[in-house]
Amino acid sequence: MELIEIKTGGVFVIDMMYTGTENMMKTDVYTRVGLGNHCFIHPEMYAKLQKLAPVLVERGLKLKICDAYRPPLAHKLMKKIIPMEGFFAAEPERSQHCHASAIDVTLIDAGTNRELEFPCRVDAYTPEYADQIAKGEWTAFKRHLKKAGYGWTAPQAEKAIANRDMLRRLMEEAGFVALEHEWWHYNLPDKEKYPLIDFAISPEGKFIFTPRA
Ligand SMILES: [Zn+2]
Prior knowledge:
This protein is of the alpha+beta class and about 210 residues long. It is about 30% helix and about 20% strand. It has one domain (about 5-210): Muramoyl-pentapeptide Carboxypeptidase, domain 2 (2-Layer Sandwich), CATH 3.30.1380. It has six helices and ten strands, in the order ββαβαβαββαααββββ.
């Protein structure tokens, strides 16, 4: 099946966080499975992003995409590295990323090229928590992870919360569905209709996507 690749340009910045090691696993899983820094999405998601693009231009913003299609094999590796419940979905079948129907995003100020302030980074990542998780210490991270949800507030965080809520408005107006416990994650509606998609690389180095029956 055809997935569409979005590349950095215009209002989109592609920075797939599992390509390098700056993520909660400290491991370049996407590089290991051969996907690299490639952002593949379902055509229906592409259409919604095209609708969002002029709105971003008007507001002087760019959308940074940190995760999109995730090969099921990559998901299995990720779950093995971080088995913590409530972080990565238990099975690839339950992660919309493996169906090419989810993206993780944040906003960049197009003038300064800097990321706007949010309650936490995408995936609630910090190098310190990644180090703790690598040692099997999850208590502090679990507390920090509360900042990922829409229920989180704090007196000094008005700006971060306003940005989080603005992102949600923009994404919902473009037709995306928010996830209550992760401000950066957006699904396509009717998520049941998207099959799990397997990934392979042809001998010529071409990416091949096959829906699982
Ligand atoms: Zn996500």
